[in-house]
Structure formats: structure tokens, C-alpha cells
Amino acid sequence: MRTERERQNLGAFLLRVLLGSLFIVHLYWKLAVLPGGLPAWWNGILRSGYPAVVPAYVLSAEVMGALLLIPGIFPRLVALYAIPMKSLTTQGLSAAAPGGLLGFATRSTAIAKATFTATYRR
Question: In whole angstroms, what is the distance from residue 12 CA to residue 22 CA?
């Protein structure tokens, strides 16, 4: 039988794997699936009116999330760094954003996972 501590550690690990996988999938989409690749994504963000620092921040947060969350290297700091990417953009808070309510639910779930991982105490 597992102790409470073991269950908490397993839950935190599963959340790190899920969120890290989300970042990996987003990076793969930007690099391999999106027509035009990373330059098309980057220019699309700039054409939407965001400053140049936004795509740089989003890309850095996704790389950090993909590389550091799953193995558990500074998971709290990485999750805290990534929270604004998902929550503080107009698309991250709007149910009318691309993807509609399903996209909104997916983003909300990612925010919740990042918040839990960031605040989890060992």
C-alpha cells in the first residue's frame, strides 16, 4: 500500500509528464506541422499586434517546459515562468478564441496543471 507521500509524488510526476508533453506537442506543431514553420508562427504573432518579446517569451517557456518539467528539474520555477504564457493573453482567457470552448477548456486545464506543479510542496 502506498503512503500519502508516495501518492503525492506520483501525482506530481504525472502532472509534470502531462504538461511537459503539452509543451513538446506545441513545439512539434510549430516546427513540423504548421505550414511555414516557426517563421510563419512568429510573424503571425507579430501581425496580431503583439510586441516581439511575446513570441520569444512563448518559445522560451515551451522549450523550458519541454526539457525541464518531465525530469523534474526546477519544476516550480519552470511552471511559474510558463503561467503567463497561458493565462495572461487575451486568447488564453477568452472562450471565443480559436478552438472555442474546447480550446478554452484545454488552456484552462494547462493553467491549472502549471499552477499545481508550481505550488506543490515536497
Answer: 15
Residue recorded with cell 497561458: 86
Take residue 46 and report the three cell numbers written for it.
507579430
List helix spans (H) across 29-99: 37-47, 53-64, 75-87, 90-93
pTM for the model: 0.66
Q: What whole-number distance in Å separates Cα of residue 22 and Cα of residue 79?
A: 13
Task: Tally Cβ neighbours within 10 Å of residue 70.
Answer: 18
Greatest distance between any 2 Cα atoms in the chain = 55
Which residues, at least 6 apart from 111, have a Cβ–Cβ distance to it below 8 Å? 83, 86, 87, 92
50-70 tens-digit pLDDT: 788 888 988 999 899 889 988
Boundaries of every domain in the chain: 4-119
Secondary structure class of 24 (helix, strand, coil): helix
